[in-house]
Request: fold
Amino acid sequence: MTYQYFATVGRGLEDIASQEIIKLGGQDVQTDFTGVHFKGDRTLLYRVNLWSRTIFRVLWTLQTVPSYDPEQLYKNVKKIDWSSYINPSQTLAVHCTGKSPRLNHSHFTALQVKNAIVDQQQEKYGTRSDIDTQNPDIIINAHIRENKCTLSLDSSGDSLHRRGYHPAMGMAPLKETLAAALLYMTDWTPELPLIDPLCGSGTFPIEATLMALNIAPGLYRQEFAFQRWNDYDSDLWDQIFTEAEESEKETMPIIMGSDADEEVIKQARSNARACGFADKLQFHHQKLIDVEAPADHGILICNPPYGKRLSETEQLFPFYKLLGDVLKQRFKGWTAYILCGNKELTKKVGLRTSQRIPVDNGGIPCTLLKYELY
Reply:
């Protein structure tokens, strides 16, 4: 049977996510603002949750109902037979996004949806689901748009960017989904050497290693929300999970990360151990001025500090100049990518860009700068 799904993604990453979903078997794939609509069967739902590197969560679209005001929303939600999706013994949480003139407070809208569901249960069974905002059995997403409410089941639970391998983080970690998307934006392929000389807790090198070894990022998660659904097919999931485990490759290129902070390098190594490939991924405690190219060509990618205030920006001027000097003197034959949210700082790199890609990093307007190093 074919169902309608919606994958939520970071702003600006819709096209990359849609290509990923197409490769996984998605049908009728269409991008939307911070999301991708697609169709497929239950196998695809499980597979996208397990394999996607760039999306946050997968919603199973149930129904869209008129919702001109709170009363109409309550009435129409209550008309849906919720017994197919949740029983009174299961806990419930409702998350709301979007708004309309008469439904402009997400908490109140979520409350209307929740009340309609539990009131239906109370009338039908004489009992109702308890609300659990921390670890619910069933998560319902209500999206308000143009006086209509689209109701969906959240199949992912925790955001898919929380891979499960990342217990140790630096001060300003890059989301794993964004790191993977940025790697897709570069010229890097799993055959090329890759280095991040400012790696922090190791997100770029680890995501690159997952790609190079063809490891599904969802293998490290303890659970997905769909495993609590009434129609959960454990045999199908076991088959898909086992296939993913058996698809891992053995060989990989040089992938390295280094950082001047010894503590974050310890965190990066801990994260690599959690993935099971600490012996294949190299992390070095090393200052930027001491970094050298490990091969005669490859991809360098980094996410240096941006500086939020003017005084912080000025203090970073010498660091960015040093970064440009290291690239120019030691990485000839390489292609470098720098993610930055501060134009004044990138001017100090002192190299001409060959491409500038706008990127939204957690609400911060950034640019992925490409440098061809001759």
